[in-house]
Amino acid sequence: MFTLAAILLTPFPAARANPLDDATANQSAAIAPLAAVITPPLPGPTAIVKMQDDDPMYSPNIVKITVGQTVEWRNTSDVSHSVVDDPAKADRASDVALPRGVKPFSSGNVMPGGSYRHTFTQPGDYRYFCWSHEVDKMLGEVIVKPLPPSAAAAAAQAQARPWSARERQRDP
Ligand SMILES: [Cu+2]
């Protein structure tokens, strides 16, 4: 809403000699507030793991979340790090774990000041490592608990009948 208000309150340029300039300005003014209304807000992460140069290099190195939640890794160090949960890329098989049937994932290089997010949609034990520092024991774990039975039932119902479920959530 602030974007829309800011644009509406922006005074027209004083000089309007070229009609072509004017048309372009009106067009962008019409598009900008529309984009602000359509873009949904990004859901925030449930847990934040810092990637740092001192032990534990993933801090905290064990995180417990529930299915559907997101972890964000933030590189607060001076070198690049990564988050790799892919058995094919590990030097030691015991450094990595994925629940059966879950696709491997990898952040690629996360530069200093950068971050990476992953949303966990399957319960289980995820053990991951840093591609550059597996040898330095830069290892982490995410334990993803299944939804409690009542929440799982509600989620299934919401998927089957999105409209009525959304209405119910709005009730106090
Ligand atoms: Cu690293």
Could you explain how this protein is built, in words?
This protein is of the alpha/beta class and 172 residues long. It has two domains: 2-38, no CATH class; 47-145, Cupredoxins -  blue copper proteins (Immunoglobulin-like). Helix content is 28%, strand content 23%. It is built from four helices and nine strands. It has helices spanning 2-9, 19-38, 149-160, 162-170; strands spanning 47-51, 58-59, 62-66, 70-75, 84-85, 105-106, 115-119, 124-129, 139-145. Strands 2-1-4-7 form a four-stranded mixed β-sheet, with no helix packed on it. A three-stranded mixed β-sheet has the order 3-9-8, with no helix packed on it. Strand 1 (47-51) and strand 2 form a beta hairpin. Helix 3 packs across helix 4 (162-170). It is globular, with a radius of gyration of 23 Å. The relative contact order is 0.14. Residues 1-32 have low confidence and may be disordered. The structure holds copper (II) ion. Residues 81, 130, 132-133, 138 line the site of copper (II) ion (CU).
What's the pLDDT, averaged over the residues? Answer: 79
Q: Please report the total strand number as a whole number.
A: 9
CATH topology of the largest domain: Immunoglobulin-like
Structure classification: alpha/beta
Percent of residues in helices comes to: 25-40%
Spans of 5+ residues with little confidence (pLDDT < 50)?
1-32
Strand order of the largest sheet: 2-1-4-7
Name the shape in a single word: globular
User: In DSSP terms, counting alpha (H) and pi (I) runs of 4 or more, how many helices?
Assistant: 4
CATH level 1 class label of the largest domain: Mainly Beta
Q: Provide the number of structural domains.
A: 2
Quaternary? single chain
Beta strand %? 15-25%
Q: Whole-Å distance between the termini?
A: 25 Å
CATH homologous superfamily heading of the largest domain: Cupredoxins -  blue copper proteins
- Report the CATH architecture of the largest domain: Sandwich
N-to-C SSE string, H for helix and E for strand = HHEEEEEEEEEHH
Taking Cα atoms only, what radius of gyration do you get, to the nearest Å?
A: 23 Å
Summarize the main sheet.
4 strands, mixed
* Ions and ligands: copper (II) ion
